[in-house]
Amino acid sequence: MSKEILEVLMHSTPAEARQRLNLSARDLDAQVLQLTASLNGQDDSPEGQAVIAYTTARSYESAAEANGTSGPLNYAPEIRELRDWVCRYYRAQQQQYLTPEFLEQARQSFNEEEFLAGLREIEATGGVDIKDLLDEPEQEVTPRE
Amino acid sequence: MSEPSDKTVPYWVSYSEIVRNELKKLIARAAERGLEAQVRAAARKMDERLHIYPQFGDPLADLSLAPGQLRIATFPPLVVKYALYEDKRLVIVTIPIATLSHSGL
User: What burial class does residue B30 get, using C-beta atoms within 10 Å of its C-beta: 0-12 exposed, 13-18 middle, 19+ buried?
Assistant: First the structure.
């Protein structure tokens, strides 16, 4: 058990301590799954998907606890490790597209002026959402004559 | 910048108007080519992932104005460049979403 958890338990009520231990047990389960997925080395394995689902849920819990305050979220070390693993997992999936040549081209084509103009617009307006575009029903297309 | 409306997301994601407009055009173009469902699914996945795991994109450059990083990610057939500001839990997308070559778009 990590020092941090011991510290929390020593300063918690019995109910809080029980809740914290349950959470730690779930985190540990997820870490075992993560290890299994890594050892199997399979994309989209059930273990990998379970780790992602669990880590995502825990990330949302941390965000809800922060209740809209800005600044980095306070993840438990176990969750931070799981998040790193998920990011590596996703990064590995896109490596076939992001070749060194592709990345170099993307770096060179980056237009800082264009980026800054967009940034200023977002600072002024708060930016826009795209969810409504993505949830629209599919368009009916009239075939071109 | 305005207060984020959704307080429960790990990262706030803001798009510029031009990104939204260009995405709308891209979806229309995809519809003409029978790829609308694929593009919408990819964009949904992109939006969801940027809200939770924005660190997964490959770093392209450090940004000079604020301690942020420019990253790139693919959601075939889409390619997105975005800025990640860890200290604010903020992701900014100001460059129109592109498509992979040979994607038919």
Answer: buried
- Asked if A86 and B56 come within 8 Å (Cβ–Cβ), the reply is yes
Domain span at residue A75?
Answer: 3-95
Q: Give me the amino acid identity at A32.
A: V
Q: Please report whether residue A45 resides in a domain.
A: yes
**In B48-78, which positions are buried (b, 16+ CB within 10 angstroms) versus exposed (e)?**
bbbbbbbbbbbebbebeeeebbbbbbbbebb
Indicate the pTM of the whole model: 0.82
Q: Coil, helix or strand for B91?
A: strand
Q: Any idea what DSSP says for residue B4?
A: P
Report whether A98 contacts B81 (CB < 8 A): no
Name all domains of chain B by residue range, CATH numbers in brackets.
Answer: 12-99 (3.30.2310.20)
Q: Does B30 reach chain A within 8 Å, measured CB to CB?
A: no
- How far is it, in rounded angstroms, from Cα A116 to Cα A131? 24
In total, the C-beta contacts within 8 angstroms joining chain A to chain B are 144
What's the pLDDT tens digit per position in A7-22? 777 778 888 877 877 8
Task: Examine residue A46 and state whether it is found in any structural domain, yes or no.
Answer: yes
Is residue A101 in a domain?
A: no
**ipTM of this predicted structure:** 0.88
